[in-house]
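2024-03-11 09:14:02 INFO queue: dequeued item Acetylglutamate kinase, len=304
2024-03-11 09:14:02 INFO validating residues
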Amino acid sequence: MSAARKHTALPKAQILIEALPWLTRHNGKTVVIKFGGNAMIDDELKAAFAQDVVFLRQAGLKPVVVHGGGPQISAQLDKQGLVSEFKAGLRVTTPEAMDVVRMVLAGQVQRELVGLLNEHGPLAVGMTGEDAHTITATQHRPNIDGELVDIGRVGEITAIDTGAIQALLDDGRIPVVSSIARSADDNHVYNVNADTAAAALAAALNAETLMVLTDVEGLYEDWPNSDDVISRLTAAELEKLLPELSSGMVPKMQGCLHAVRNGVETARVIDGRVQHSILLEIFTDEGIGTMVVPDAQPDAQGES
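2024-03-11 09:14:37 INFO prediction written
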């Protein structure tokens, strides 16, 4: 057998070697991932997401998953004959609707995700922001046309306690957090925007990276005239763009801004419709999606 014969598996080795600098850079670092959009609904994307998160864990990173569940909540409210109403992009949440939100997030979406992750080993532990006072909130009253409006059990985060999550990470587990919080004022349970919760947790955990899965390729430079994606921008550049963004992107990009202004090294918005987009973003030279970096960071740092 010729020693020079080309092995068909050689490209696999090259791919692994390309990942080496990123494996070295991210080893031991915490990464917070906001799970949402199509990736939550499509079975193949869900399975690929679970594989990616477990891969991160086995590669020496410390992933934390934060999830909402908008489509599942709407479906369950419909089933129970409760109307889904939105004001200022937020779901009006009556006490009855809050019971459904809690049941769907903690009892359905979270359980399914924990199950998918645990197909690969005893790794994932589900919890909500209520557990161990991880997330504390107060009632959020959005300003609509100059007036503060009561939209029910929608929460604004007032405090984060990372103790329980940190203990799970130190034990080699993958925390899966539902974006529900309890109030210290009135002891009510509140529905918290999952993008906002992920960003607040990333900052409090001193995470290296916040990753937000979306149903778009990233932040577009000149939508709808062009589908060119901005691959990298600073916090100041993002702040200037915020007023022009579509309502669905606002909490995601505000979350990215909050994260990088509070100690997180990079925040990335990536396309959750692409299988293994998390691995492509973290472990390849090109990266995909849009990366937000702090203002002080020099351009010489390079991509990813």
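2024-03-11 09:14:37 INFO annotate: Residues 299-304 have pLDDT under 50 and may be disordered.
2024-03-11 09:14:38 INFO item closed
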